[in-house]
Amino acid sequence: MPQYIKLSEIIYRNVEQNKDFRGDIINDLNMLMIELRAEIKKTRLKLLVNCIDFNELMVNPLYANELKLDLSIVPKSSNKEEFILWLATFIQKITVDEDQPKIPKGKKIKVPLMSLEPLDIAAPPQISSDKELEWYQTAQIAD
């Protein structure tokens, strides 16, 4: 996660210095993507998708299922610390680290089945009166 935070700080600083934050969430996200594409070339990260239609994500949240994005929680760009943390998790979701080992899709993990043989432990009998309880307790102590 630290690499994503560092990258998000750089992107935020670049967009802020160029005065590209305009208050319009779609425009701001598009400017962030432009900066992200430029900065990601300097890292070992790779984008999972070529294009993200932010307008469609705002109108149809089901479109985001593939990337697991929720744009309803995007903080205001004026709140620097919160925005950088959100941007770091956003970058983490839309990129993949080339250094990470790839997990092959479709491979299933084999889990051993549990034994279906009965256990040797006897269940306590149903006790309905105090006399039965006393008898059961004395029988347990005697064993």
TrEMBL record:
This is Uncharacterized protein. It comes from Acinetobacter indicus CIP 110367. It comes from the Bacteria.
